[in-house]
Amino acid sequence: xxxxxxxEQMESIAPTRHAExxxxxxxxxxxxxxxxxxVLLTIDYTREVADEGKKLGCDAVIAYHPPIFKPLxxxxxxxxxxxxxxxxxxxxxPHTALDVADGGTNDVLCDLLGLVERSPLKIVETxxxxxxxxxxxxxxxxxxxxxxxxxxxxxxIGNYSQCSFRSPGIGTFFGEAxxxxxxxxxxxxxxxxxxxxxxxxxxxxxxxxxAALRAAHPYEEPAFDLLQLAAPPEPRGMGRIGTxxxxxECAALFERLKKDLEIPSLLVAxxxxxxxxxxxxxxxxxxxxxxxxxxxxxxxxxxxxxxHHDALKAAAAGLTVVxxxxxxxxxxxxxxxxxxxxxxxxxxxxxxxxADRDPFVIH
Length: 363
Hints:
The protein is α/β, with parallel strands linked by helices. The protein has helices at 3-13, 47-56, 80-87, 95-100, 105-113, 142-151, 206-216, 250-261, 290-295, 308-316, 333-344, and strands spanning 26-29, 38-42, 60-63, 90-93, 116-119, 122-123, 130-138, 165-174, 189-202, 224-228, 237-238, 240-249, 267-269, 275-285, 300-305, 320-323, 349-352. The protein has a 6-stranded mixed beta sheet with strand order 5-12-14-15-16-13. Strands 1-4-3-2-17 form a 5-stranded mixed beta sheet, with helices on both faces. Strand 2 (38-42), helix 2 and strand 3 (60-63) form a beta-alpha-beta unit. Helix 6 (142-151) runs antiparallel to helix 7 (206-216). The chain is elongated and about 85 Å long.
């Protein structure tokens, strides 16, 4: 199976356009055309996880946290990225794209508790994955230029291909010294009947589509515009808040969380007793969503970790905060992701890392 098939499924499950703007998601190392057969799923790509992958014969890794986050100035031995590239191991990271996704990290936490009437704690601004290309072509070359653009990947909207809009107009130009215009003469102001072509282009195909335009266009210097498109609003966001079907005592919820997350302890701030009805969740480090949880009248806020002063603020507001340690709030989503990938890619062998664990241990 080609790596591109796994990328396509991951993009379907957790579209990268929904990730936070500061994040680094998607394919971080590898060639989409390379063959893969064994995939290791992990939260963090550590030395122990890399060694586990070698023993299992894995040629691809889905690492929830991106092992390449800040720009790299060099990739040399003995770094994990150098080792992965040298061995031909692809690395893909979904991170906040999976947090936002339906059925992703935060929905898995909600499902553990059976939360209903759930909604995002914070709406995420979605980045458009497409731009609009506008170019101006003499009528005799419209079909040839359009065909070249479509062949390079332009003009696809949902299940429709070769989509464009065309309108006639008059273009003007003055060919200066050294020019060789395809229409008219240099040194003279020319007017030419032209067709304005508008079509959408995927952001990851811009270079190829512009190259195809230049190659097919009859003009020496074809004019074109690339316009960034705003994404239509989508009800997607970070974290979740929902309601339990019936009130549950704090102690019972704490025990359920420890059992389902397979952890021995929880860090609790604020009231540690009393009934819980409304619950907010946000996997990872989500102190910045605390105000949203308070404003939306949550009784309990479940997250991975929280700053000291945020925990004091929550307690003062009467909100119970449960911290599981960072990756303990995220790891359970790997089981759900593995199940979904096995259903959509039955020829691929998938493994949950046994070496992956939170770096902190409570003694």
